[in-house]
Amino acid sequence: MPSWIISAFFYFYMACWSLGFVYRFRSNLTSTITMISPMASGMIIGFGGGTVAGILLFPNLLLSLIISMIIGVIAGGIIGAVINVGAFLNGALSGMMAGMMGAMLIYMLPSTQWRRAIFVFMVISAILQFVHMLMLQGQIQETSLSRSPWMYRSPAHMMVVTVILLSIYTTFGLFETSFTDSNSVQMPKQTQQSPVGTPNEHHMAH
Questions:
Q1: What pTM value is reported for the model?
Q2: Rounded-to-5 percentages of helix, strand, coil across the chain
Q3: From first to last of its 206 residues, what are the pLDDT tens digits of the chain?
Q4: How would you class 90 by CB atoms within 10 Å of its CB: exposed for 0-12, middle for 13-18, buried for 19 or more?
Q5: d(Cα 21, Cα 6) in Å, to the nearest integer?
Q6: How far is residue 170's CA from residue 187's CA, in Å, rounded to a whole number?
């Protein structure tokens, strides 16, 4: 399994959690939180989706930027659309900008650093999403939060899922690295076995 699939699922999970929580408790959120939440979701998911799209569509920069911006607009816009038009614009524009930055950053890095950079971005996104989750849960009364599903009322759910996905990504990343190294070791052996020329060829050359 390519490591980018794990990264894509990681950001897809964050988008689904944010959308489900905001939609379920949209009437309990203050006006300030309704503007911050779509912006935070759009930035996190747009930037992460931009890095994944930049790798998949390399070296087509234009297509990478377009797809990345669409991912950011959809991620932030849908979460904001369940609240009001202002929240939609805030989330969509933030997601569009973050998606563009994610794709451009991948193109500025050498391909040997992509896997490590994606992992660092996933860790930073997980921390920001965890803070985002605590902010949203702090706006809901304990009685309402206790009647919601476990994935919305307990911070442990997101922490467990995040740790599992990061561990899987690290495992597959090490496997891909060892597989690439083994192939690079075999290449010099094949080049050494290739004939340079026969004695008749050297005699004809003289």
A1: 0.77
A2: 85, 0, 15
A3: 577 888 899 999 999 999 999 998 888 888 888 899 999 999 999 999 999 999 999 889 999 999 999 999 999 999 999 988 999 999 999 999 999 999 999 999 998 888 888 999 999 999 999 999 999 988 888 888 888 888 888 888 888 999 999 988 888 765 555 444 444 444 444 444 545 555 555 444 45
A4: buried
A5: 23
A6: 26
